[in-house]
Every structure is written in structure tokens, then in C-alpha cells.
Amino acid sequence: MERHFDAELKDLNNDILKIGTLAQEAIYKSIESLKDRDKDRAKTVIEDDKKIDELELVIDEKCLDLIARHQPMAKDLRFITTGMKLNNELERIADIAVDIAQRVFELADKPLLKPLVDIPRLTTIAQDMVKTAIDAFIKGDIELARRVLLADPEADKLRNSIQKELVEEYMVKDGSASPRAVQLLLIARFLERICDHATNIAEDIIYMVKAQVVRHHPERLKG
Amino acid sequence: MDKNIKMKAQDINFFYGKHQALKNVNIDIYANQVTALIGPSGCGKSTFIRLFNRMNELIPHTTLKGTVSLDDTDINAPSIDPVQIRRRVGMVFQKPNPFPKSIFENISYGLKVNGIKDPDFIEEKVVKSLKRAALWEEAKDRLNDSAFKLSGGQQQRLCIARCLAVESEVILFDEPCASLDPVSTAKIEELILELKKDYTIVIVTHNMQQAARVADYTGFFLLGELIEFGKTQDIFTAPKDKRTEAYITGRFG
């Protein structure tokens, strides 16, 4: 039986996909602006973030409204509460894209410290994780969610090795390189945070689909 | 029997004539907990709850197979007096059913039927029961008024007070709030949560939010079968059976 409520859930679903798309776009543009040292493009990331903030508020309000009016149960309840969490995670991801874009202003006019190798790799992982997490949401696919969770340690490792290289090879050896090295360090940190948010999304989706809490319990993933 | 289990229904099959209303139902009712029975109309939940105090045998042409126990006693054993069972297992119905007597007499009646004559004891019991049923403040100045002068919600609390006076151990509620407004409903729900400290409570309700609010355990009935039984939180956030899921999310039909 199709309920009126289903149409409202579909509408919420579409909004979450929309904020997901906007967040992915923000990451993409911030990374491109960093690669191309393109301050104009970086600016658009910062400006577009306002739209994402607005949409976050709209989605939050819709979720609260659905809970208050329909008092949803079971998978409806899990869908809406997960939607609320995804909404916040995706908005935070977009904020991090803004953080990255802001680094572009610090770096664009200065010579490149070093050819970027690991940061683009970390970027690819972060983008993949976010995309896969959103796909997992669209399809309600636990396997995809699991894949996101399994990718996270790789991101952590890469961040650590970037940090080690920047500190040991640049900051310690040549103090004048520090300002640029710090910017790159921050970017690596931001990318790793994006991976963490993707991980949260994946965990939330496993709860939404299976009603199983894997947050803080990695051992439950195996089952 | 596990001492946490107050009542137990085992292998219950129940028939109205040839029509089978309950099929192989097994359930444990935990002491000092609220157990809610939910399900669509005609699913057998009201028939089932009436088995706990032998109310179905008042209906002609019914057959019960299976065992219902209270503590360790088979309540349908030949030696058992159904009146005693109904004292120990009280019932509150959908429509409040006060006796056509005063508020005071509604409560003292059960005591007198049980052979208690001491007027001081009776008065004390009436006051205590009304207080416990959260009706005292509203009723204390009109104890000799007809019970019919009370509002629906007050009448329902009077019926609860009646169970308390005769020291029921289990209270069965069959749709107790179906004819009440939201404020009276909230009062009954508060009372149920308060009473579970000392009583074991089973409630049949059409209102799933009510089950979610008051019950510790919930059972879902469909076409005479107990489809799923478990902790209320699990039933309402993560039901295991597709039919439970469909019913509680309103996709049924």
C-alpha cells in the first residue's frame, strides 16, 4: 500500500541526494582549485557553501516535521534518523571543502613546495569514499558501506606518511618552507577528515538497512 | 517457572465454535513489566488477553487447548475457583464500566464480596486505592456521588482503583484509552507506568504509539498467531518479521 507518507520520504531522499551531490561538487572544485592554483574557483566553493548550509536547515526541518507528524516506526524511523545524520555529515564535508579552498589563497601565489604525489592519492580515496557512501545510501547496499569502512585505514596511513614527510623533509630541514608545509599538512588533515565523515555515513547506512550498530564496534562488521 | 515470569501461556489454541481464533500461541508475561499486545482488528489479541483471567469461558461454544499459568498454578485446573483468579488478575475494559453505585461503593463492593466486613479497614482501602489510582484529589469530596457523574477518564481510573482494592497482582487492560481524550489517556498511561512497580500489566492497544510509550515488551498478533514478541524498543525500531514491519509502519493491507 502506497502511503502519502512515502511521497514525503521520497522527497526527503531527493533532498539528501541533492546535498550529497553539492558536497561532492564542493570537494571536487576545492581540489581542482588547489591543483590549478585557481583563486577564482576557490572563491566559488566558499560562495556555494551558503546554499549547502541553507539546504541543511531545510532537510533538518523536514526530518523533524516527519517525526512530529507521522511518529515513524521501524525502517521509516531508521531512514529519517539516518537522513538527519547524513545531512549533518554532508554539510560538514562541504565545510571542509571550504577549508581546503581557503588554503588555496595561502598557496596560489607561492612557488610549489614539492610535486604533489600523496595528496592527490589521498584526494582520490576521499572522493571515492564519499561517492561510495552516497551510493550505499541510494541503493541501501551494505556491501558498499562496508567497502567505505575498509578504505578508511588506508586514508589514515596516507595522512600519517604525508605528515611525516612534510615535517621531517621540509619543516625541520628548512624553516622557511614551514608556512607552505603547514598549509599542505592542513590539507592532508582535511582530506582525512572527509574520509572520517564518509565512514560515519557508511556506519549510519548499515544501521539504516540492518538495524545493526557498528559504530565503535568494528568487530561487528565481520558478521 | 522463572520467578520473573508472572504468567505463562503455552501452546494456546482457541476456538469460537469451529472458528480457530488463536493458533499455537506461546508467551511469557514478565513480572512488574508492561506487556503490550498489538495487531489489526480481529487478530485475536483481545481473545488472548481474556484467557489470562478466564473471561472467555463466559462465552458459549468456546474451546481452549493449552495451558495458562499464574505463578506456578494452572488457572484452568478443576480445583481453581475462577472468581479467585479474576480477583488476582483484574481487568479494565475499553469502555469504563463502573457499577451503578457511588464512587465509594464501587471500590468497597469487591472487598465485601470477598468477605471483608470491617468498616474501618474498608474505608482505609478505598482511600488508598483511590490515591494509588490518582483519583483521590478529584473524588475525595464526592465519594457518595454516583460513579456515573465522573468523566470517562475518571471512571476508567475508578475501574483501576477497583482492581487495586482487591489486591490484584496482574492487571489486564483491553484498549483502556480507546474512548478517552489525549489528556485522560496521558493520565492512564502515567498511572500504568507508576503501577508496574507493584503489578504486572498486560495491555491490548490499537494505538502503537501507546504501546511504544508504556510497554517494556510487545507482541504482534496477526490472524490468531503471535508473529513476533520482544522488547518494545526492538519491535518498534528493528522488527525481525516483515509482517510486523508492514503493520507498524502502516503499510498493511
CATH topology label of chain A = Methane Monooxygenase Hydroxylase, Chain G, domain 1
Strand content of chain B: 25-35%
Number of helices, where a helix is a run of at least 4 consecutive DSSP H or I residues of chain A? 6
Q: Which parts of chain B are unreliable, with pLDDT below 50 for 5 consecutive residues or more?
A: none
Fraction of helical residues of chain B: 25-40%
Structural class of chain B: alpha/beta
Overall number of strands of chain A: 0
> How many structural domains does the protein architecture of chain B include?
1
Task: Note the run of SSEs of chain A as H and E.
Answer: HHHHHH
Most strands sheet of chain A = none
Summed over residues and divided by their number, the pLDDT of chain B gives a mean of 94
Give the tally of structural domains of chain A.
Answer: 1
Report strand % of chain A: under 5%
Task: Return Rg of chain A in Å.
Answer: 19 Å
Specify the overall morphology of chain B: globular
Report a brief summary of the structure.
The complex is a heterodimer of chains A (223) and B (253). Chain A has 223 residues and is mostly helical.
